[in-house]
User: Which sequence fits this backbone?
């Protein structure tokens, strides 16, 4: 092993530890409290309470609650961005730390392109607020 | 995994995962103001690779630093708004809480 590779592995270990700790805390909270219940202590979306519109993160807590309880369909119904983020964010972090991903180069280039994400987040934000069927499926619920 | 980096990516981090996360969380916790720093951070992070590939090393480093700064601004905003959310729950929350939930909460605490 090259000495120059060490900081990268340390950074990965630190990131993975922090992510696992956060995930464990999240699982504990979501097994204990139900964000679907009235008066749940889990915070609601401020953007939605002010504007009545959905933001890209709306339904994220309920989607995570569904995931923790093994309900994949309900997770997708609540926030379709969650599985996308859960798959791509770790890969982006690995790429950012300097690891080579076992994916086609063009796929990696597209994934770490900021423009793609700006368009994805913006489009998701607008489309899930449209009231017509193909788009309204993106709204939480 | 120990191979040296062979892609032509810039040596300056783009903080993309961080900026995407704070954009989504910021949008949820404190409206458009919360999403703005994250979007700015994604734009600067994007400039890192663009400028590096164009041969502008100093520009790429500057963009990376800017992306980091905006990531921290967004993170601070998310942290503050999360605290405000929790605070408002304790100030206002109990009044509209259902009887069922209070029982659930007591059970959770006694466990």
Assistant:
């Amino acid at each position: 092993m090259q000495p120059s590779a060490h900081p990268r592995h340390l950074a990965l270990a630190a990131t993975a530890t922090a992510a696992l700790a956060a995930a464990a805390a999240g699982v504990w909270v979501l097994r204990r409290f139900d964000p679907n219940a009235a008066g749940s202590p889990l915070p609601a979306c401020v953007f939605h309470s002010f504007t009545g519109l959905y933001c890209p993160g709306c339904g994220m807590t309920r989607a995570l609650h569904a995931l923790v309880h093994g309900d994949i369909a309900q997770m997708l119904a609540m926030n379709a961005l969650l599985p996308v983020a859960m798959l791509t964010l770790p890969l982006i972090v690995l790429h950012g730390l300097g690891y080579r991903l076992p994916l086609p180069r063009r796929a990696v280039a597209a994934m770490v392109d900021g423009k793609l994400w700006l368009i994805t987040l913006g489009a998701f934000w607008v489309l899930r607020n449209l009231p017509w069927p193909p788009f309204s499926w993106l709204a939480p619920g | 995994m120990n191979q040296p980096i062979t892609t032509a990516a810039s040596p300056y981090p783009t903080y993309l995962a961080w900026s995407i996360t704070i954009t989504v969380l910021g949008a949820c916790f404190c409206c458009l103001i919360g999403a703005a720093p994250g979007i700015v951070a994604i734009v600067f992070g994007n400039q890192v690779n663009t400028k590096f590939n164009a041969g502008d090393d100093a520009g790429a480093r500057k963009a990376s630093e800017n992306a980091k700064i905006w990531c921290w601004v967004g993170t601070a905003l998310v942290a503050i708004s999360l605290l405000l959310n929790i605070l408002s729950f304790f100030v206002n929350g109990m009044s509209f809480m259902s009887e069922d939930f209070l029982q659930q909460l007591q059970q959770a605490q006694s466990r």
User: Anything to note?
Assistant: Chain B has one domain: 16-110. Helices of chain B lie at 16-53, 57-92, 99-110.
